[in-house]
Amino acid sequence: MESSSLESDSTEVFPEDKTKKGEKSYKVRNGSQRYPFSVSVQRKGSHYATGALIEKKWVLTVAGEFYNVRESIKFFRVRLGTVNCKKGGVLLPIKGVEIHPAYSYKNPTYDVALLRLAVPAEYSDTLKPIPLTRIKGKVLSAKFLATYWPRLIVRGQVLPSSAQERVQPNSMRVSTQKMIPWSWCQSLMSTLNQTLDESSLCLDPIMSHHSLCLPDAGAPVTADDGLWGITSGWTSDNCLGNPSPTIFTRVSSPVVRAWLDSQLTTL
């Protein structure tokens, strides 16, 4: 198997000093880590979405990309344990898809789904699950890591020829992404006729290496304490003229975590 050797700075998670009584706030800095949890979800041999292995039989990914394909899940596989989505690691079939019940198609909130693997993953140095963060407090500012594989064609749109993702598109990418303050993002999203709640956090769109209209759906958003969330595939209708932030669903949100716990305990 191939393993990722990509690394970045160490992570610290600590309470913010200036908080209201009874309120916990946190800052997050990026973490030095490998990425054996990263999963390439594939359809008929091509990369379709990214995800994160969280248990032997479960991959957490984005809901929107699977909302209308649940009946054809037999055409999908997951590739784990490699940084190349075309080779190496192991390729496993998917048994089923569970979409968060609060998710509404083409909306950014609760945009998470679980893929149940037909065969349990066998852990190794290059194939391991990632723990879910338990931090539930308000986040004042943060930088996270996101891992993903680029998609050159999404919903009929082709990635611009200038995008760096066209170089070695089969290789996994790791990017540092800065959080947008939640109140500012909530205000911005209201101008786009969208509402956010505590289940979502917002990241700056990555303008330097791919199109604003082709987000990296399902990318795990991580820090040293584990998985913080999964990026949504949602974009604003006028994504080029009025770029929208990257939205990710927090796994520690009570509504999301309760759903995850209930699903992971099923046989």
Automatic annotation (TrEMBL):
<dbReference type="GO" id="GO:0006508">
    <property type="term" value="P:proteolysis"/>
</dbReference>
<feature type="domain" description="Peptidase S1">
    <location>
        <begin position="19"/>
        <end position="265"/>
    </location>
</feature>
<dbReference type="InterPro" id="IPR009003">
    <property type="entry name" value="Peptidase_S1_PA"/>
</dbReference>
<dbReference type="GO" id="GO:0004252">
    <property type="term" value="F:serine-type endopeptidase activity"/>
</dbReference>
<feature type="region of interest" description="Disordered">
    <location>
        <begin position="1"/>
        <end position="26"/>
    </location>
</feature>
<dbReference type="InterPro" id="IPR050430">
    <property type="entry name" value="Peptidase_S1"/>
</dbReference>
<keyword id="KW-1015">Disulfide bond</keyword>
<dbReference type="InterPro" id="IPR043504">
    <property type="entry name" value="Peptidase_S1_PA_chymotrypsin"/>
</dbReference>
<feature type="compositionally biased region" description="Basic and acidic residues">
    <location>
        <begin position="15"/>
        <end position="26"/>
    </location>
</feature>
<keyword id="KW-0720">Serine protease</keyword>
<keyword id="KW-0645">Protease</keyword>
<keyword id="KW-0378">Hydrolase</keyword>
<protein>
    <submittedName>
        <fullName>Trypsin</fullName>
    </submittedName>
</protein>
<dbReference type="Pfam" id="PF00089">
    <property type="entry name" value="Trypsin"/>
</dbReference>
<dbReference type="InterPro" id="IPR001254">
    <property type="entry name" value="Trypsin_dom"/>
</dbReference>
